[in-house]
Amino acid sequence: MKIPAIPLLGLLPTLTSTSPLHHASCVSPQSISNSSNTYDYIVTGSGPGGGTIASNLARAGYSVLLIEAGSDASSDIRTQALALNDFSNANVAWHFFVKHGDDEERLKRYNLLVWRLENGEYWVGKDPSAEGHVNAERLGIFYPRGATLGGSAIINAAATFLPSDSDWDFFDKGVEDGIWSAKLMREYFEKIEHNNYLDKDTPGHGFTGWLQTNIADRATHAASTLRFKVFEACLRLVGKDPEKVLDYLTSDGNYLDPMRDQSEGLWSLPYHVTPNWRRFSPRDRVLEMRNLTNATLHLQLESLTTKVLFDSCSGNDTKPRAVGVEYLQGKSVYKADPRRNASSTGTLHQAFARKEVIVSGGTFNSPQILQLSGIGPKTLLEKYDIPVVSDLPGVGRNLQDNYEIPVYGNAQVSLAAAPDPDAPQCTYGAPGDPCLDLWYKGEGPYSRGDSNSNAFLIKTPHAVEGERDMLMFAGIGRAFAGFVPTEFLNSTSYPPSTFSWSTVKIHPQNTAGYVQIQSANATDTPEVNLNYFAEGAETDLNAMLDTVAFARRAFASTEAPVGPVISVSPPCPPEDILDTGYCRDTQIDKDWIQDQAFGHHPTSTNKVGPDSDPMAPAGQNLPANQFHSRTTHETLKAIQLSNSPVPIIERHNMKLLTLNFLTCAIKTCKTNPASFPLHPRDAELEIVEADVNLAFLKNILPRLMWNELRAICSELGLPELPPTAPTPADLVEPSSTSASALDTTDATPATATEQVEEEPSQTAKDLHRILLETCIQEGKLVCGACEHEYAVKEGVANFLLPGHLV
């Protein structure tokens, strides 16, 4: 089984279940809601998933309530200048403490355990009593998560490295809806990207979208060349030209090539930042949308979603409808907020949605919200007296993460760049920081990125399906051994001769982690157990051993004056390191990796899969939803997407199929049948080719308004559709459907099954061409009832209305 690697933000399948419904109390929005607390959509969580979707829905003219537990920290310079990033900043991050498994002895060996002392302060290490601290409370392994407008995109490293094509194709195959293919995802990336570092005719990239991307330039890398000697040694090991280090360091890691995911070597690491290295995030999109004159996006900050409200009064025992949410308004009410105190109580409110509730609280909090709402494992819900809406054992399961460890050593000389007497002395945000003053002007070191904008990828002997499976980032003068609260960031000192590889396992095979509530109190944090190496250890652990050996071989072969680099960690005695780079006693390295591995890319706690999979609470069939509620962000994937998150969210060309669902948004037209369909005028059409997907066509066929579709095709001058809609059988070539009737006397049962493969008929191809390949790029949509015009620009229809028309 192939399990890919890091979360790419914002997949949006609909939450489904085949489990029986057990009604709780009857909640009717008609009796509780009013105009002041009712919206078209409610979105909980403002990160790369929720923030982007809420902005797009509002841009389309829908009224949207975006609920965020944190505040807007736009004024905090640490959330703007990437050079000042502080991942545990109490103003923007929740402090979770997790477990790596149930092995108590292994947990005790973790070097960066966090404890709370009697005075309330944090302490980091294995045993605080060794320093005289008694009665300290062991909290666990520090795991910060974004809790502010923009979510974790405000505190992350901002890396924007595209996943493997096979990750998308694997996911696409798993959900069988044909819309998550690598080819299509690359097209969406091109639509949303605003690339700041490549020529504008570079294939596979976009230059007019909203997602700002950038890399460190040649001058930045050229300022620190001693480390190049280690890069050269690594390049020789993978058969690359060591003389081209600087060229590789400024090459595009997201390049378009069918062999990209099999290629080893050194590339730049792109970031989601502007040309002067200001962090760009969903926060920018949300604030832009909110500040529009006719904005329909309503921000509800400092409000913790406590549960989803369901309408159980309809009498339909299979489709409970999410009609709203309950939320606790107040600052720092969640117990993961380090600022919380006894006065952090909040007041309870409700809000209601006419159309959908979209849960996008992230990998830890989305399953918590669902479980508190009565959706999850029945035994868990009953343990805390939560009425069961649906028994879905997969909610909170399938938690995955990338394993990370540093591999570092000491060079023969200092690797720090020679001091420049004319350079400003940066104080990293302290009052009077001259580099910050320069950054505001688009100048100085903060506006040029950092030399750690690099990515070395290798393919170990344990790689899955022949793809590179380890990602390494180089740093000098430091090693990143895991997360600790801010005050302990510099508690471990490293000599300036330190060269470190931060190694990251791509395509991890472990899906055994889980997130589950520990009470019915929504302000309590859930239990988070990553269960490291519980599954797939033969692949993952050995690939990490291979990478340690690779780094040591490179250290040993690094040329003077830098090399040889003496390996320090993992701590195999130098005399026991073999020429192959492996430790003579491999158990030393194995134990170290298992004891000290950490991660920060959690994903997949609301798995997507077929209805037959009891552990897949999010079903594959988007239109046929049973909960009329959605989950998004990292929680949905059945797999982990490799390498780092990128918000490829809800960015589609305006396919002709879209007109099957759009109606006039003006309130006086709501009940007028002439308001549907909207009529295209002055339309500029574009054909965007895509593979025919029979499953999707069969699924959408019953939902097509055929007469209206025929009228639209006529208005656009497209080929005339037949008077009646085709049947699902009309979409399949008869020769392919009759395969099962062929003589299979000489075939085994397996080969007989393989012969049955449906081929799309010409009818299917024609329908696919019209619905999914024909796109309206420019023009307008006109209401047949009131003649109001909605402009279409770059494939997006603007449904914003003056207040008196909404």
TrEMBL record:
Residues 724-764 are annotated as: Disordered. It comes from the Eukaryota. Residues 362-376 form the Glucose-methanol-choline oxidoreductase N-terminal domain. GO terms for molecular function: flavin adenine dinucleotide binding; oxidoreductase activity, acting on CH-OH group of donors. The keyword Signal applies. Residues 1-18 form the signal peptide. Keywords: Signal. Residues 734-753 have a biased composition (Low complexity). The keyword DNA repair does not apply. Coiled coil: none annotated. SUPFAM superfamilies: FAD-linked reductases, C-terminal domain (SSF54373), FAD/NAD(P)-binding domain (SSF51905). Belongs to the GMC oxidoreductase family. This is Glucose-methanol-choline oxidoreductase N-terminal domain-containing protein.
